[in-house]
Amino acid sequence: MKMEIERKFLVSGDGWRAAAGAGQSCEQGYISAAGSGATVRVRRIGEKGFLTLKGASEGIARPECEYEIPVDEADYMLEKFCEGRTVSKTRYVIQSAGMVWEIDEFSGENRGLVLAEIELEAENQAFEKPAWLGEEVSGDPRYYNAALAVNSYSKWGI
Amino acid sequence: MKMEIERKFLVSGDGWRAAAGAGQSCEQGYISAAGSGATVRVRRIGEKGFLTLKGASEGIARPECEYEIPVDEADYMLEKFCEGRTVSKTRYVIQSAGMVWEIDEFSGENRGLVLAEIELEAENQAFEKPAWLGEEVSGDPRYYNAALAVNSYSKWGI
After folding, report:
1. Which of A17, A74, B46, B143 has the fewest Cβ atoms within 10 Å of its own Cβ atom?
2. Model's pTM, two decimal places?
């Protein structure tokens, strides 16, 4: 178990694309819904599968246990255990000013949404904001991937 | 992913104890509740931890994915992710007529309940019933461990 400390931002414009390599296709789904003891996520990214359990957030920190699993089992669970609770996206990784940014460009029902995440060692850790970084949405539960899986961006009426 | 085919019985009397070795202490809890895509169970048995996902039953067969995890992470999840949804039992393994029986003697809120399970290769596989075997309860959802975790045997009013 580790504490994941993460900040999340909207992305402004396409300036990030020049620094992004080839993205990896990522399909993820949610097995347990709100009201249970933890969020249970299954993810297929590229040719790898992962099962991840996340507890309740405390500020921007969140307990997380992650396990790599056989990719065919991830696919099975996405199909059988996550019906109607999946998101599809392409994940790009960008190095900027010594930090690693993960940019998620959503597709399907969340098409049009691009989010940038940075993982920190401490909640108050300083970092340089790239020019393409937009508004922070760390505290907005609508942008949780688990929320986007059931209330997709295209339905927000923005 | 495998299909688990299992039959479950009450246990009659103490005749099984002579053939049972030392049991292993087993604590298990449920992260996801009914209504989600799968049952997510975390188990500590002896000094090992496991995370297990089970889909919907089809007769006595049930899809199951199981992963061994670090025991300290199992303990963490039992404490943080399974509040109010745990069962404690001692598990004994008995060989009988070429088959392996798992006998669960429950404790805590389920004290007094003893169940025997046998895992089969096929739904119609024949096996010899030991003398101590009682009524079959395979189809009775009250005896699911996930159900016993929230509606314990001591509250049934039997």
Report:
1. B46
2. 0.92
